[in-house]
Amino acid sequence: MKILMIGDVIGEPGRKAVAKLLPSLKSELNVEFTTANVENLAGGFGVTPEVLRELAACGVDAFTSGNHIWDKKQVIECIEKFPQLLRPANYPEGAPGRGHSLFTSASGVPVGVVSLQGRAFMPPIDCPFRTGQRLVRELKGLGARVILVDMHAEATAEKVALAAYLDGEASLVAGTHTHVPTADARLSAKGTAAITDLGMTGGHDGIIGMKKDGPFRKLLLQVPTRYEAAEGDVQLWGALVDVDEATGRALSLAQVHRKL
Questions:
Q1: Which has fewest Cβ within 10 Å: 6, 45, 162, 216?
Q2: Cβ(225)–Cβ(160) under 8 Å?
Q3: CA distances from 235 to 64, 178, 198, 252 (A)
Q4: What's the total number of domains in the chain?
């Protein structure tokens, strides 16, 4: 079965890219299940019920996220209304929401999805390695053979390390957060596919999805600055993995890139 994981969707431009490109992509690539990282969905920071409805209507089956998931006050309402929304699973016990879930593909295949957040150069959080391994095994115990992991992290080494730690257990370990696609899509001998960063879906004429003025002001003056989503050169980035649904082994992995 073929699965599409879409990199960080940035604001309205990113949502438009998904709305206009995903339906044809699913048909062209025979996609049975789709995930998208949504932590930047509402104006570049956080989520609201309205923007999550937009993505769900486009055919996105599961929403992964990261540290910006908490940036809008509506996040609790979103957690309550959208069971497909995952926050990083390695937040401390008692944090709102959940970080893993069992979904069903278009053809009825159980698909486990785990959302994790890194610790290097990121806010303090519990161990993504032990948490990820525990939840992957839990999902397999619930009947999932196909397991997708979104590792939302700053450091490339930490993402590569997680893919190695879950080698032979997860079908795909995909990195997000840095918004820059990496040219290292790979398959292990044990059947785990991995890519260090999926890239971002949104305006590419700015600085990692934001209009240039905000980042320039922040970098030059070191003062709090309001960022706005970039609007030009809108692109969709992600990865397509083909998984043997009986064994959970990845058979191929390829980057997906389309311009709006």
A1: 216
A2: no
A3: 19, 16, 12, 23
A4: 1
Using DSSP, state whether 104 is helix, strand or coil. Answer: strand
- Report pLDDT digits (tens) over 67-117: 999 999 999 999 999 999 999 999 999 999 999 999 999 999 999 999 999
pLDDT tens-digit readout, 32-41: 999 999 999 9
HSE-up of residue 146 (Cα within 13 Å, Cβ side): 24
β-strand pairing of 146-152 with 110-117: parallel
Cα–Cα distance, 38 to 49 (Å, whole number): 12
What are the pLDDT digits (tens) for 227-259?
A: 999 999 999 999 999 999 999 999 999 999 999
Cα(40)–Cα(30) distance, integer angstroms: 27
Domain assignment of residue 177, given as a range: 2-259
Query: Tell me, what CATH number does 142's domain have?
Result: 3.60.21.10
Q: Provide the residue count of the chain.
A: 260
Q: Where are the beta strands (DSSP E) in the chain?
A: 2-6, 8-9, 31-37, 62-64, 100-104, 110-117, 146-152, 172-176, 186-187, 193-195, 200-203, 234-243, 250-259
Q: Which of 68, 100, 152, 179 is catalytic?
A: 68
The reply to whether 257 belongs to the active site is no
Instruction: Report d(CA 38, CA 62) in Å as an integer.
Output: 10
